[in-house]
Q: What sequence folds into this?
């Protein structure tokens, strides 16, 4: 699929989180997937602001808390995703919500 264009006309890298809840917590068995242009194996991952050793793979299951982002060849860096390791969290769906929407909250610990 095609990535949406940013206002400047450059393609954007998308960082997808599964399961789609926010805040994102380590014990939810979180999978991060990087999508953007470029052939398979062109993904560079960043953890806590530094290039990280999972170069090449476009997805993985997170095993450490921290901040993550990714980059695909010919696209900009993705948004940053923070993975927490808090004992108790109140989570909401990680999607756009509009006034009047029914929202399911999760209190997890």
A:
């Amino acid at each position: 699929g095609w990535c949406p264009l940013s206002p400047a006309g450059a393609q954007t890298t998308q960082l997808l989180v599964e399961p789609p809840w926010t805040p994102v917590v380590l014990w939810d068995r979180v999978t991060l997937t990087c999508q953007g242009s470029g052939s398979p194996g062109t993904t560079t991952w960043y953890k806590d602001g530094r290039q990280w050793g999972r170069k090449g793979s476009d997805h993985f299951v997170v095993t450490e808390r921290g901040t993550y982002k990714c980059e695909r060849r010919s696209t900009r860096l993705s948004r940053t995703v923070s993975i927490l390791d808090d004992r108790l969290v109140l989570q909401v769906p990680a999607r756009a919500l509009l006034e009047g929407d029914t929202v399911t909250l999760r209190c997890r610990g």
